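Hi Q.,

Before the meeting this afternoon, I wanted you to have the pyridoxal-5'-phosphate prediction in hand. No need to reply - just skim if you have a minute. The sequence and ligand are here:
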Amino acid sequence: MSIESQANPYIFDLVRYLPGKPIEETAREIGMLPQDIVKMASNENPLGPSPKAVEAMTKCLLTSHIYPDGEAFKLCSAIGDKLDISWSQVVVGNGSSEVIELLCHSFLNPQVEMIVSQYSFSMYKVMATLFGAIYTEVPAKNYGHDLRAMLAAINDKTRLVFITNPNNPTGTALSAQEIEHFMANVPDHVVVVFDEAYVEFLESKNQVDTLRYVREERNVCVLRTFSKIQGLAGLRIGYGVTTPVLADLLHKSRAPFNANAVAQAGALAAISDDEHIANSQRINRQGLVFFEKELAHRGLEYIPSNGNFILIKVGNAQNVFDAMLQQGVIIRAMASSGLPEWIRITVGHPQQNERCLEALDKALSSLS
Ligand SMILES: *Cc1c(COP(=O)(O)O)cnc(C)c1O
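Predicted structure with the ligand bound:
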């Protein structure tokens, strides 16, 4: 008897998550120095972490023999103050990915369903599969969420619906009216999860106040992360903002010290570093304008982005990925998201953007 035959059957449907290719590994493979490699693959912040966060974390290292605050009181209070919500309605996780997992722990099993949009964050499927749950992808509309179709897909078995705004990997954003219509009609046996990992990159006129639904005690969880605008992806820290009832369920589902002390200290310092946030927004806007202008100039199709990345149609994306990799530029080919003709480039700082575009030009001309 093999031990595999004793494992949960739905585990076999999983493929291991494929992260953006690491710099060190690429450097070894193509014989370049790590410092000459440019990685624009995982939506990381090209400015790095907030200097204030680095200072706070350095200090925190001296007390790393002490367990972290399991309730993350200081961090939750700072988030609560910023968002005008009680600290007790904030649940932090080892990345917001962990908060997604906590929602699944609380609600999913093989009899019930998660609904997501086509072309969205790959982690949702991984999580639904881990819990053996029914997983439904609703066809996208113009590469974004079709909220009316997602509403129509909801049935008695539905427990979690994920709305990713702005969406990864397509960069699309939803309007307040679309979200309002959805919320006016969603049945109350469903938890609506607004995944807002990129919300700080949205122009303020396009931001939708989803926290309002939390304040109204609708069954809603708003997910945010320190991985993107704050540049703390390596620390693994994110959070959900939700109702007292749902917060209690999520707390019961989590491990005691799920967010580590260094991450909590870094996040606490980063949240009030307005200068770093503003600089990150500025460099991202500049980069998006650069890419959109240059791509349009070349007649390449792209999707106007509300995030810190851009999705570009290039033909055989895997070949373009390989050809760019040989030049020391790591981007992402999106076949695993059902987009085999598209690459996703994370916006970098200006020199990185230029080097990336040069590599793309060379790749496309060598392949044509
Ligand atoms: C990056 C990302 C997250 C957050 O990831 P963590 O690093 O786990 O906080 C969540 N949702 C989407 C859509 C993302 O792209």
